[in-house]
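=== RUN LOG ===
request id: a7f3
mode: sequence -> structure
chains: 1
length: 112
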Amino acid sequence: MDMPSGPLESTARLWRSARYLPETARLLGTRYRALFLSYAPSARPEGEAAAVADALAFADFLLGQHRIALLGSELSALRRDSRHLRRGYQLLRRGDAVSAAPKSRLRRWLGL
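=== RESULT ===
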């Protein structure tokens, strides 16, 4: 399921990704929206787990942006949310396209 782009779709993507990054969305509050809308044009989520891929790519975006000042509690929440998603999914990138593949049970058990 590919997601179309545009301002309305970016807002819909924001709410879908917030479901997978609940602590981060809660602690960032209105900044979550502004940060997500600045990230959204740089990624095109695809596949059955497109919302998960979008959330993982957004978490990577936030962790990689040194100009974004996150408080300690916000950074901790972001890392917890990201770690929780990465237990079950692997982020795959192809250019600006991002998708998420479920990890096998053995990989989850080993923590990979």
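=== NOTES ===
The first strand starts at residue 44 and ends at 45.
The beta strands are 44-45, 89-94, 97-102.
=== END ===
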